[in-house]
């Protein structure tokens, strides 16, 4: 899956919600807090981490490439 970034960055929890990987923003934050989100292969626990072009986010078997 790819996501086309329109600005300089998007916050991680907003990206997860925007792509409908969860039903609520709270669920997105819980996934991140529980260490279930990988940013470029490393566990990311910051809900408001600024995701930029060229990065890869993985949640379970879903991989998102930011373009």
Describe, in plain words, how this protein is organized in 3D.
With 67 residues, the chain is an alpha+beta fold. The protein has a single domain, classed as RNA-binding S4 domain (Structural Genomics Hypothetical 15.5 Kd Protein In mrcA-pckA Intergenic Region, Chain A, Roll). It contains two helices and seven strands; from the N terminus they run ββααβββββ. The chain has a five-stranded mixed β-sheet, with no helix packed on it. α1 packs across α2. 15% of the residues are buried. The model has no long low-confidence stretch (mean pLDDT 96).
Assigned CATH superfamily: RNA-binding S4 domain
Count of the separate structural domains:
1
N-to-C series of helices and strands? EEHHEEEEE
Shape, per Cα inertia axes: globular
Sheet of most strands: 5 strands, mixed
State the total count of DSSP E strands. Answer: 7
Q: What's the average pLDDT?
A: 96
Would you tell me which CATH topology applies? Structural Genomics Hypothetical 15.5 Kd Protein In mrcA-pckA Intergenic Region, Chain A
| CATH hierarchy: architecture | Roll
Integer-rounded radius of gyration:
10 Å
Structural class: alpha+beta
Helicity range: 10-25%
Using the coordinates above, name the CATH class: Alpha Beta
Strand content: 25-35%
Instruction: Give the terminus-to-terminus CA distance.
Output: 10 Å
Going across the biggest sheet, name each strand in turn.
1-7-6-3-4
Unreliably modeled segments:
none
Summed up, the helix count is 2
């Amino acid at each position: 899956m790819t996501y086309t970034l329109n600005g300089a960055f998007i916050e991680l929890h907003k990206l997860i919600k925007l792509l409908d990987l969860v039903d609520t923003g709270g669920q997105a934050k819980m996934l991140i807090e529980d260490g279930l989100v990988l940013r470029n292969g490393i566990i990311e626990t910051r809900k408001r981490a600024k995701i930029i072009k060229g990065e890869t986010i993985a949640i379970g078997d879903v991989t998102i490439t930011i373009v």
